[in-house]
Design a protein that fits this description.
Elements (H helix, E strand, L loop, with lengths): L12 H30 L5 H11 L2 H23 L4 H34 L2 H9 L8 H8 L2 H6 L4 H18 L4 H9 L4 H29 L1
Length: about 220
Amino acid sequence: TEVDTKAGVQPKPFNMISPLVIMVLTMPLMLIYTGWDSALESRPTGSWLEVAFVALGNGSGSTAVLVGVVVSILLSMISFSIQGIFDLKENVDLIFKGISGLMPIALLLLFAFAIGTVCKELQTGQYLADVASQWLSPKLIPALIFLISAVPMAREMQVNEIIAIAAALGGGIFGDHCSPISDTTILSSMAAATDHIDHVKTQIPYALITGTMTVILYLVLGFVS
């Protein structure tokens, strides 16, 4: 929203769609490339398609995203230059303007990842399992897992792990929508060019209504399973 259309330039859908298509296609190719060696070790006799499928899950996501974005930007710069839309200086200026606009988002994501790392290093899940196992009824675990996504607690107290994993995934999505430092919440407000806190406030009612209904369902599953 901070960049105006350049005077004398006719906007074309191709110039918006092509960089996105290039980025989306490059990322799975890079996932296969970075995960190929480990996939060959686990599937030495597998077909090319099978190895590629395994490599997708073993590849480096960060490398794939980085290469995908860089390739998309470089090809876009070439395309814009050929069309006479931007020269090299204008392309570089726009790239740095985009980077500067993402800095607040990057800082929020940095804090979010730091909190997650701290919780992992402190073994928060194991601590909750040890504390709760002394007084908590196993029948309440599915509902509580939805709220705190504590799979280690379920394993410790011998709760149905299928329900526990489902609750953990749902709880993660619930927390994702309610947390102001969630990566998806941050990226959503950024993509919509709206105030971040306003976005959080407007999506919380929907998350709470759905979350409350889900907790009730998990309570029922906890008592009948």
